[in-house]
Amino acid sequence: MCLFVYIIFYQLKIPDPRENSYHWRKGLKLFSVSRQLLWKQAQSFPLFPALGEMESHMFECVNQAAVHEELEDETRRLCDVRPFLPVLKLITRNCGRAERLLDSKIGVLIGKGLHELDAINDQEVKDFRGKTLRQSEEKMQKVQMMSCTEWLQASFSQQLEPGPGPDQINGVSDRSTDLKVTIHFDQSQVVHILFPPTVNYMIHLLLSYSFVAVFCMQYIRTCVQTKEPPHLTLVHSSIIQEMFDKEVSAIGAWSAASRYLSLCASARRAVPRAELLCKPAVSSESSGRSEHTWRDSTLEFEISVCDLPRMTRLCIAIYAVMDKVKKQNGKKSPRLYPIAWVNTMVFDYKGQLKTGDIILHCWSSFPDELEEMLNPIGTVQTNPYTENATALHISFPEYLPHAIVFPPFDKVTSIGHCPGESARPSPPHTISWSSLKEIMERDPLSQLCENEKDLIWTLRYDCRENFPQSLPKLLLSVKWSKHEDMAQLQVLLQIWPKLSPRDALELLDFNYPDQYVREYAVGCLRDMSDEELSQYLLQLVQVLRYEPYYDCALTHFLLERAQRNRKIGHFLFWHLRSELHMPAVSVQFSLILEAYCRGSIPHIEVLKKQVEALSKLKSVNELIKFGTMKNARSKAKEAMLTKEAMMTCLRQSGYYETLSDIHSPLNPNILLAEVNVERCRYMDSKMKPLWIVYNNKLLDGDTLGIIFKYGDDLRQDMLTLQILRLMDLLWKEANLDLRIVPYGCLATGDRAGLIEVVSSADTIANIQLTSSNVAAAAAFNKDALLNWLKERNSGDALDHAIEEFTLSCAGYCVATYVLGIGDRHSDNIMVRSTGQLFHIDFGHILGNFKSKFGIKRERVPFILTHDFIHVIQQGKTGYTEKFASFRQYCEEAYLILRRNGNLFITLFALMLTAGLPELTSVKDIQYLKDSLALGKTDDEALKQFRQKFDEALRESWTTKVNWMAHNVAKDNRS
């Protein structure tokens, strides 16, 4: 007998963030309470014994996606579940509670139920999930064997600063060797502070472990440079042990030939830099309105099956032939209109050549989207939206009686060993060293002609001996359509010296799809420290798009390092989750997220609380955007009512508890303790970003701020800030600290994300407007900025603030020039009270400057106004030694970036498929090559930069005019 019990809450009202009333109990946790009430009332019914134990049942509902959702986690609030109707169904648990609870939590984290992955009828998906599940179980067993110290290092790793020691830091060498540290005690520790056994306190253990390591902590060094005492909290080791025991115990509870390739397809031309293995095959035209069948149903490509590389992909384009148009030479040619494209691998994930009929659901094409018909850089996954997608039926030939499988690695290398070939470099007198050296020193964007490719391949052993970093150029010189050359490369790759991790990043680009090349690159990345890996994690996640199969070396490497270091795991989680809405990577990223969660069970609760908090912030943002307050009589009244509604919402227990005591998604080492509702607000811009303020439990009166933005894509800002952080790192490695402020920015979902609030800072526009009664004149007051700093600093502190301003201004002048950052109005440049200048809002990069009526609004290569110079020279007229030092900082910083120009090009190239609005093709990256003058000598490049510097100074009046117009338009003073 099956017993179903339905519970209907007639008085329940599901929360709607667009409503301006809050009388319903949004934070109600109904599941466990309702189950107890049900059992109590059911005792009076005759079939009550048939119900069995209460713990063997759970509730189920139909959610907003019209999917049955099992409510295993009884701590969730009903407003977070958001059932479609106020109806819950009682069902019997079919398996272990712990397993179902884990599946439920993982489903909440990745934004989709695991039943969706279970329903995918793809053997590759099933095999990948099975393999990662076994690896996750092994990982959890290893975690249980960790010592408390090992667990502490993995879960709470410190962010370290590169560069020199304390005696070489600007402004530190002339100070006393004593460092004033403020130690905070918890109230529970007061009893023990008279005679504390110091061995039991973790701060003592950390300090005695390595003094240099403590000074290298980013927080400690920042405090030293800003002359602020570090604030540390003494934590008894028993508390750490308790945290460790809690996680480990939680883990234990949860661990219960000569033939030609032929097929039916339509294709045309190839994209530059993609290795074209043979001439494209083009079908005949097909007329009709819906279903199309091509007469010449078999397309034959001029390449033997035996010469197909393992990673061969078939790229197909469907296009319409429009009316012919007359060209300049008088001839008429058809106008081609792209309709759709799709890619598929020729070999499946097991290395077997595909055979038989398959259906490919295509991706739509647009005339301005692609310069070419084909899109080989695109995904090999078919369009999941099958109802509205073009369906292309193709048939691969059958190769009977046996399937064709790509040869194993040992077979490939046996073919690659040539008995008569010497692995030694050629004698020096037979080599055109100057030509080879010139080729190897080119940037990654430079094209190689056929003669140069032949030279590189002929001298491949010389390249290995003398130019090991030239491996990418060697790979571009291989004839991949000849299996003999391909085999010889694999042999050479086994003896190729290991590249530095930074050089190896280029090998993960689309131009190098070979499986063994990518495995070699991942092997080089294993030498990365956790800090270095975090620096490049954004790109490493993006190049997962280039991986044709779910089970690959890069995926396993990222999972391994993420599960070893929780901070890496934190950002891997958010980088993946923020793009789950993209159909091309939805399944792939969901599988990786599931694998990470199963291998990092203790991290699930931390991430779950962050996901819930962001969901609440989104609801508040929607309340502000679509609330009923727009009917107010005036804008002031509307703003007041909207803020009141926002604060009322934040005060509710469901919101307040969810938003409090969470680890910041921007930096998991920071705890956002309790929301300071009175200081929270929304910003008066189109997307109404939320300004959320948190109290710091340790520091009385001190606060932390984050900005939640919904409606804008923050990934371009995130990329720009990552590059600024890298520039800061490279400068520090060269003993040049330019006091950059690469504030935190993290995309968390579709057009949603968080931005760190930089404390004690204001915009140039506000500083200027505050000092002037007339908005139009404010931009021309060169004393405003210097006076603002004087009001907040005096004596030595003022000198230090001006030095901070000088260094940071130099850094941002160079950075904004190299990256081509546009839209630099006075609200996009800020200054801290300590003197640090920094830029915000990077919606225009790589030379995409704003224009109006076809005229560029920004005519200078970077922002360097006379009021900046006025601060640098401390109000003195004429160009002084301080200005000369400033110019020297700029030139030195520029040359340091030039020496690392290839790295910047590589990082931007790896982001080409991310879908950023101003990074869509190699042409966009060409701006970097030009700004860094990579094809020139250092002297020529420095001459070019000096010309740009003089131009920025000479034309700074145009910047002032732009700032005046902006100040007048945006003046919100009452």
UniProtKB/TrEMBL annotation:
Its EC number is 2.7.1.153. PROSITE patterns: C2_PI3K, PI3_4_KINASE_1, PI3_4_KINASE_2, PI3_4_KINASE_3, PI3K_ABD, PIK_HELICAL. It is found in: Cytoplasm. GO terms for cellular component: cytosol; phosphatidylinositol 3-kinase complex; plasma membrane. Keywords: ATP-binding, Cytoplasm, Kinase, Lipid metabolism, Nucleotide-binding, Phosphoprotein, Transferase. Gene3D superfamilies: 3.10.20.770, C2 domain (2.60.40.150), Phosphatidylinositol 3-/4-kinase, catalytic domain (1.10.1070.11), Phosphatidylinositol 3-kinase Catalytic Subunit, Chain A, domain 1 (3.10.20.90), Phosphatidylinositol 3-kinase Catalytic Subunit, Chain A, domain 4 (3.30.1010.10), Phosphatidylinositol 3-kinase, accessory domain (PIK) (1.25.40.70). It comes from the Eukaryota. This is phosphatidylinositol-4,5-bisphosphate 3-kinase. It comes from Neogobius melanostomus (round goby).
